[in-house]
UniProtKB/TrEMBL annotation:
Pfam family, one: V-set
Signal is among the record's keywords: yes
Keyword entries, A-Z: Signal
Coiled coil ranges: none
The Immunoglobulin domain, residue ranges: 25-123, 188-289, 290-392, 496-595
Bilayer-spanning residue ranges: none
Domain of life: Eukaryota
PANTHER family found in the cross-reference section: CD48 ANTIGEN-RELATED (PTHR21063:SF4), LFA-3 (PTHR21063)
InterPro entries: Ig-like_dom_sf, Ig-like_fold, Ig_sub, Ig_V-set
Protein name: Immunoglobulin domain-containing protein
Length: 613
């Protein structure tokens, strides 16, 4: 017996407001699995003393410029996801829904303290891109009855119910509309790809001879490729704004390849397969990642367009920052580089006439940030590429009983004021006034005694009685505000640290700095290799001791090691070797005792740093 009922849908839209404060909140949205960089205003961060990032309503600290990236117990959700550069910008990688929320940056300067807020929304697959400006809640009140159908790898796309063709079918036809008809099958995949590379959207189903294939992109579902059912003719389209011109390749199996992908190709790709047997859908969420390049202060870096080289008629434009400031351009034989805002690129840029690559020499914090390349030609059209450069602090290795010199490596100006600070509290320890060449040493930290000397010509600081830790230099003048950061280690300063843990708990061995891309770490236990890996290449991670099988996790960005389900047999000597790009080996050594009589809690161990001969 057929039965029918009428169902009324009431949609109540409620948009949340972020508190009653007058501070501006910048809204940012990112797809699940993607990355986002939160940038304070450049005029806010110039000459800063300290920058602190907080998350959530409770304002939990997740990053601190005086401690690089600091993780606390409440913020395990951010482990190996945060990168704080020396300009105060915070990058969060591999975003998940639990990373949605309010981020607040506090910027301390001599002139006062300023704040900026960001509302970050992580969009789930199939989520609305309109959920950017606030928190919008849609409540569906069903008057009669509701039946929830669960499908593995299926979702019921309620949005489709509101589309004209389905709504008309529901209202005008007297035949039954089953849940199977209303819940269209969606196979969803999330893909991440680096900007400039290619990605192939591979379908799971076997294509039949009479199938019509339609590939669509974006919220408007713009047609970008098709295979006709009768003729099997394959056609690709440029898209409304031409962003897909010469970038698509569709094969007979219906797999779609996007070449030389850029940020504008991020989004939802939808495959519709239609035949006499019915219609099915498959959806792909594509996240295009910006290439992140880590550079140590003072080094040079080269940004490459692609592998094809520049052609005679190519127009190559390099831009910097959120304002897209022009810093270099080339067309034909004509090349030009520019100093940029406040002359920060003066005598630093080199544009290669053959490849169009851009080299930035003697990198400093003011040159960190987002670089954009726009390359146009009559044959290839216009392509875009982005690079995010992060400046890391310099690590200085000293030998106990000797001295070490911290050199800012800059051209001094007459009215420069040099302020040398030490420790997480940025205690002033030495000062040089450029005009008078007067040097002042403070007693803020008695460990230095009379062991500090300032070079009146270069501003460099020599430390006779070496004290390990973070050092910071601020250079202030009428024309510039610069910052330099150093971290000093002493070779084999002391013996291993003694640590206790409880059987069954997780032991997390945490380093205190970020490992650069391409640098290697190796953990050993009782002279046997436990774990080894390289930041930036997970495939090179290896675990070598069967006693710890399935109990180890190496964190590539920090070198930290997690030992799960600890046992008494884990008691012994541990060592971490970190090989820097310069070839220096930095080590940590400590003794761990695992027993069944300590408190039932996770043990987080901060390691004793030293250096290996």
């Amino acid at each position: 017996m057929k039965s029918s009922f009428s169902t009324e849908l009431f949609l109540l839209l409620m948009c949340g407001v972020f508190g009653a404060e007058t501070e501006e909140v910048k809204s940012v949205s990112v797809m699940k699995g993607g990355s986002v960089t939160l940038n304070p205003e450049r005029n806010q961060t110039q000459g800063f003393i300290k920058i602190v990032w907080r998350f959530g309503d409770k304002g939990i600290i997740i990053a601190d410029s005086s401690e690089k990236v600091t993780l606390v117990n409440e913020t395990e959700r951010f482990r190996d996801r945060l990168q704080l550069d020396l300009t105060g910008s915070l990058t969060i990688t591999d975003m998940r829904t639990e990373h949605s929320g309010l981020y607040k940056v506090q910027i301390d300067r001599n002139t006062g303290t300023s704040f900026k807020k960001f509302s970050v929304t992580v969009l789930e697959p199939g989520g609305s891109s309109g959920a950017i400006a606030g928190t919008c809640v849609t409540v569906l009140l069903v008057a009669a009855a509701a039946v929830v159908y669960y499908y593995r790898h299926r979702i019921c796309d309620l949005k489709r119910l509101m589309e004209p063709e389905i709504s008309e079918q529901m209202l005008n036809k007297n035949e039954d509309t089953t849940a199977e008809q209303l819940c269209k099958k969606y196979e969803e995949k999330i893909l991440s790809v680096m900007e400039g590379e290619s990605v192939t959207l591979k379908i799971d189903a076997e294509i039949k001879g009479d199938d019509q294939i339609l590939w669509m992109f974006g919220p408007q579902e713009t047609l970008i490729a098709e295979i006709k059912s009768e003729t099997r003719e394959i056609t690709t389209f440029d898209g409304i704004d031409g962003r897909f011109k010469d970038k698509l390749k569709l094969v007979k199996t219906a797999s779609l390849t996007i070449t030389n992908i850029t940020a504008e190709h991020s989004g939802v790709y939808k495959l519709q397969t239609s035949s006499s047997r019915g219609t099915s859908f498959q959806r792909f969420i594509v996240n295009v990642k910006v290439m992140i390049i880590s550079v140590v202060e003072g080094q040079s870096v080269t940004l490459y367009p692609d592998n094809t080289g520049a052609q005679k008629d190519d127009l190559i434009v390099w831009m910097f920052g959120d304002e897209n400031n022009l810093i270099a351009q080339m067309t034909g034989k004509t090349r030009a580089t520019y100093e940029g805002t406040d002359g920060i690129f003066r005598d630093r840029l080199k544009l290669d006439k053959r490849t169009g690559s851009l080299t930035i020499r003697n990198m400093r914090t003011e040159q960190s940030g987002l670089y954009k390349l726009q390359m146009s030609s009559s044959s290839k059209g216009t392509t875009n590429k982005r690079f995010n450069i992060v400046i890391n602090l310099r690590m200085i290795l000293g030998v106990k009983g000797k001295y070490v010199t911290l050199n800012p490596d800059i051209e001094t100006q007459r009215d420069d004021l040099f302020l040398w600070m030490f420790g997480d509290e940025n205690n002033l320890i030495a000062q040089l006034t450029g005009e008078t060449k007067e040097t002042t040493y403070t007693d803020a930290d008695e460990r230095f005694g009379d062991g500090l000397r300032l070079d009146k010509n270069t501003g460099s600081l020599t430390i006779k009685n070496i004290t390990t830790g973070p050092y910071k230099l601020r250079i202030v003048s009428s024309r510039r505000n610069l910052n330099r950061k150093f971290r000093v280690f002493i070779c084999c300063e002391s013996g291993p640290k003694i640590v206790s843990a409880m059987v069954g708990e997780s032991l997390i061995l945490i380093t205190d700095f970020t490992i650069e891309r391409g640098e290697r770490v190796q953990w050993s236990f009782q002279d046997k290799t436990l774990a080894a890996g390289m930041n930036g290449d997970i495939s090179k991670t290896a675990y070598g001791d069967v006693r710890f099988k399935d109990r180890l996790e190496l964190h590539h960005q920090t070198g930290s090691l997690t030992i799960k389900n600890t046992r008494t047999s884990d008691t012994g000597d541990y060592q971490l070797k970190f090989l820097s790009r310069s070839g220096k080996v930095i080590c940590w050594e400590f003794k761990v005792t695992v027993s069944d009589s300590t408190m039932n809690r996770s043990a987080i161990v901060l390691m004793n740093e030293g250096a290996c001969e």
